[in-house]
Design a protein that fits this description.
Shape: globular
Bound molecules: adenosine-5'-triphosphate, magnesium ion
Number of helices: 4
Helix content: 25-40%
Number of strands: 3
Structural class: alpha+beta
Strand content: 5-15%
Radius of gyration: 13 Å
Strand order of the largest sheet: 1-3-2
Length: 113
C-alpha cells in the first residue's frame, strides 16, 4: 500500500489534481481511497457529485463504537473510494496544524483493510 499526501496554498489545484490522479490509478486497476481534509469537500464532491457525511460528523452523532465504515466511505467515479475528514465551516477556525491532526486522527477505523 502506498500513501500520498497533497497539501499547499489555497487554490493551486490540489483537489483537481488529486481527483484526476485517483481516477487514473483506478483505471489502471489499483484500489484507491482518497481522504479529503477540506471543509469545502471539493475533492470528494468532484468524485461523487455531492457532499458526503464526514468522519467527524458521524463520530459526533454516533460515537466511535457505533459508527460504521459504510457511513463514511463512499464509492465515487471509476470506483474510487472517498472519505471526507470534516472540520470547521469554511473560513472559520481552519488552520494548517488542525488540518494535519484531522488527517491523522479522523481516519475511519479499519479503512485500509
Ligand atoms: N491544471 C489546471 N489548469 C487550469 N486550471 C486549473 C488546473 N487545476 C485546477 N484548476 C482550476 O483552479 C481552481 C482551483 O483548483 P482546486 O479547487 O483544485 O484548488 P485547491 O488547491 O484544491 O483549492 P483549495 O485550497 O481552495 O481547496 C479551480 O477553478 C480549478 O478548476
Ligand atoms: Mg481543494
Amino acid at each position: 500500500m502506498r500513501k500520498f499526501c497533497v497539501y499547499g496554498k489555497g487554490g493551486i489545484g490540489k483537489s483537481t489534481v488529486v481527483s484526476n490522479i485517483a481516477v487514473a490509478l483506478a483505471e489502471d486497476g489499483k484500489t484507491v481511497l482518497v481522504m479529503g481534509c477540506d471543509p469545502k469537500s471539493d475533492m470528494t464532491r468532484n468524485l461523487i457529485g455531492k457532499r458526503i457525511p464526514t468522519v467527524l460528523d458521524v463520530f459526533r452523532a454516533k460515537g466511535p463504537d457505533e459508527m460504521k465504515l459504510e457511513e463514511v466511505i463512499f464509492e465515487g467515479f471509476n470506483g474510487v473510494y472517498c472519505v471526507e475528514a470534516g472540520g470547521p465551516e469554511p473560513g472559520v477556525g481552519c488552520a494548517g496544524s488542525r488540518s494535519g491532526n484531522r488527517s491523522r486522527y479522523a481516519r475511519p477505523p479499519r479503512c485500509f483493510q
